[in-house]
Design a protein that fits this description.
Chain A is built from five helices and five strands. Chain A is α/β, with parallel strands linked by helices and 128 residues long. The mean pLDDT of chain A is 93. Chain B is elongated and about 85 Å long. Classes of the chains: A alpha/beta (128), B alpha+beta (351).
């Protein structure tokens, strides 16, 4: 099932552009980009995303803490969260998954398959 | 002459311990006595086991340390291991090397242990790995923008591009991919060398690992028109290894063999077993390696031959480090124009 609404938390403007274009290419209609975890939490209710893509290293509130807060809140805990980060070490992946995330994708990612990778993760968990 | 020898032994900064056939201490230099906080004279002639007891509270793995001191019918071997030692608030790390102790006629009379403080080297190693981990993260971020942009332009998303533009962007894309592999390999090798990877050991079937690896390199082999063949004995004992890491080892050897193979040739994988070990041989029919280059093959950033093969130059160094981490060994048999055989051997049973 293709994605309709995606909320992204990513502080690097160039990577924001690549994510936006890569999702747009695959027909995602609403892509909300936020600069950090705090903004992401503030916009999650209005964005009503199918999935949230989180960077880890962000100012104000990092990705791990953002995911923990999303999962602790009954209103947002059912929204699937996928990390999209350059933190590629095994212990970092473990730490990310321990926050309740659905998946962990590592940068650099392939913009041509990003959408399909997200959908595959959602399908795997039966959340799509 | 003996006085001169003693002077030399006493002047060393590292500890020296000599144990005889009955596991009694025959020599203990001042550096080691000072480090352990014991009186040397008191301990000469005493059972080495007792020494273990004295320093046990300061060792993190006391039992393993003590058993390593006891002579276990392995007199002719050289051994090396790391020992953690608590001194006040600090954890010190030592390398213990041991070898046979011989008398004037060359007869083995006991075992000699030396202790070198490697704490500082270990700290520097950790700092290096941490630095590389941070650098790797920082490099990945701009790589994401570059690779992402190039991939999107090549997809035609931003409009049509001419043949020349496509060709140039293809070059940029390949460069990006290579740089990413390089970043990954540098970090991986640094962690293996610093002993910072934890092997997830479990009993596995080596044939299954080889089959998975063969499937992984199938498309590369098809591209190069190289056929892959597996030869295996009917029954094979299981071996306790980290499955993913072993797949990495076999895949590295296979892709290396394929890259150096001429079209229409064959890469053979042969699995065999012997007394206490399993062996895997990856043989190609490629150009082979000249005797003067044999020693460089497992080195870092070594690309042999005139033609660039697109690797990172770290694949075989990582492969070797992983085999050694499994207490195995790897070697190469090759002659110029007669192909190469990379062979690794793993011990059967628990690591």
């Amino acid at each position: 099932m293709p994605l309709t609404r995606v909320l992204v938390a990513e502080d690097d403007p160039d990577i924001q552009t690549v994510i936006r274009m890569s999702l747009k290419l695959k027909g995602v209609k609403e892509i909300t980009i936020t600069e950090n975890g705090e903004d992401c939490l503030a916009q999650v209710k209005t964005a009503r995303p199918d999935v949230i893509l989180l960077d880890v290293m962000m100012p104000r509130l990092d990705g791990y803490q953002t995911c923990e807060r999303l999962k602790a809140n009954p209103e947002t805990q059912s929204i699937p969260v996928i990390f999209l980060t350059a933190k590629a070490q095994q212990f970092e992946i473990k730490k990310g998954m321990a926050t309740g995330a659905l998946g962990y994708l590592i940068k650099p990612f392939d913009p041509m398959t990003l959408h399909d990778q997200i959908v595959a993760l959602l399908d795997q968990k039966g959340t799509a | 002459m003996e006085a001169a020898h003693n002077l030399v032994l006493e002047s060393f900064l590292f500890g020296i311990l000599g144990v005889n056939w009955e596991n009694r201490i025959v020599f203990l230099n001042q550096a080691l006595a000072n480090r352990l906080g014991i009186s040397r004279e008191e301990w000469i002639g005493k059972p080495v086991e007792g020494l273990g007891g004295v320093i046990e509270p300061r060792l993190t793995h006391a039992e393993a340390f003590r058993s390593g001191l006891i002579w276990q019918h392995e007199a002719d071997t050289f051994k090396s291991r790391e020992v953690d030692f608590v001194e006040g608030d600090h954890l010190l790390q030592f390398r213990e090397d041991s070898c046979p102790l011989r008398d004037g006629s060359g007869q083995i009379t006991g075992r000699l242990f030396t202790y070198t403080d490697i704490s500082r080297a270990k700290t520097i190693d950790r700092m290096k790995t941490e630095f590389l981990a941070i650098a790797s993260h920082e490099l990945r971020t701009p790589m994401t923008s570059i690779k992402g942009s190039v991939d999107l332009i090549l997809s035609g998303f931003a409009g049509d591009i001419s043949g020349e533009t496509h060709e140039l962007l293809d070059i940029a894309q390949k460069g990006c991919d290579r740089l990413i592999r390089l970043i990954n390999d540098i970090l991986d090798l640094s962690k293996i060398e610093a002993g910072q990877i934890k092997l997830k050991l479990a009993p596995i079937d080596l044939v299954e690992v080889v089959q998975v690896s063969i499937r992984g390199v199938k498309s590369l082999a098809d591209q190069q028109k190289v056929s892959l063949r597996l030869y295996r004995p009917e029954h094979l004992p299981e071996v306790e290894v980290d499955r993913d890491r072993l797949v990495q080892v076999v895949t590295n050897l296979l892709s290396n063999a394929i890259k150096f193979s001429p079209a229409e040739s064959e890469v053979r994988v042969e699995i065999s077993t012997g007394d206490g070990w399993l062996e895997c041989c990856v043989a190609d029919q490629g150009c082979g390696i000249s005797p003067e280059d044999l020693g460089r093959v497992f080195g870092k950033f070594q690309q042999l031959g005139e033609k660039k093969r697109g690797g990172t130059g770290l694949g075989l160094a990582i492969t070797q480090a992983l085999v050694v981490e499994h207490r195995g060994k790897i070697w190469l048999e090759s002659r110029l124009n007669e192909g190469s055989k990379f062979i690794f051997r793993l011990p059967i049973g628990k690591l």
